[in-house]
Amino acid sequence: MPCADRTTTLNLLAIKKSPYLDSLRSSIPRLPVELAAEPDLPRWRQLPLESKIPLDGVPLLARRKLGEALRLDPPQFDTSDPYNYEVRLDYEGLHDPHLTRFFGESEHLREAIVKTGLVSPRFDVKCSLKDYNAYRSYLRTMQAKLMRLELEKRDEMRREKFILDIAERQAAKIIEKLKKDETRNALLKELKLKEEIKLRRIKQKHKELDDRLEALTLSRWKTCERKKLESTLKRESFGRKRAAMAKREQQTLLNTLKEWHERDRRLKKNLETNSAMRRQAKLNEALNKFEKKKLSQEEALEREKLLKDCAVTLKEAFLESYEERMNRDRRKMQELLDEKKKKIVRKIKLRSRSRKSSSCLCRVN
Question: Of these four, 91, 142, 284, 299, which has the most CB atoms within 10 Å of its CB?
Fold first, then answer.
């Protein structure tokens, strides 16, 4: 793993640095500000403006000289930070440019300010480390804005150059097109001449074709007239033949109708005779059936009469036997009842006697 990290770092170091940013920084005008710090370390001069100075307790840190404004005049009207969110620079009277005349007129005032320690002997206004770093970040933002403006200018110049190149290419194309149009016009003239010659030839051919068509139409008209005459003659002959055929068909139709009438009359006569014979046969058959039915009914009545007589005799015999059996049963039942009555009477008498004897014994005691 450490070998891999080493190779990656070497590869990163071996990457060629683009000189675009250096050229951009060199093209931007330098800010009219010189920061003062005593003692000044050599590494501080190499630090970029966005990095802060880490060491506190430096005896002299100055942003600008006496009477010089902290805020720099922007190259154009800037509305990117209207509420001072990026860098906040409070008002300080020592940096007010309107008071430079006031500070410059009296030497006693300048000496007093230097003695109080607010200003260095070279008239650098002292500040704290926090204000110094904040002012460095402000200068960094101003430098970034200048770089952005320079980039916008370059983009605008590149865009204009691109538009000019496009316009030049279009102009070259238009010139080529005009040259082509000239050659094309010459070719068009030649083509027009050729087309005129072709049109003349075509007109000549059309004229010949028209003459041929007229001759063909005349010959066709003659053939049509001849065919019409032939067709009329054929039609008349066909009409005569059709009339003769119709007459023959009518005669044959009449003959067939007569034959059909005779056949129908014979059939009708045969049907009448056949129907009369069938009616007579049906009548005879019905009479035979009636006679047979009459005989069968008489025989059935005789059988019923015999059966009734037999049933009556059987019923009488059954009733007589039934009455005898019932009389026997009645006599037996009567005898049984008499015996039961006698037994009951005996029991009652015995009970009465036993009661009387028991009552007498009780009295004696």
Answer: 142
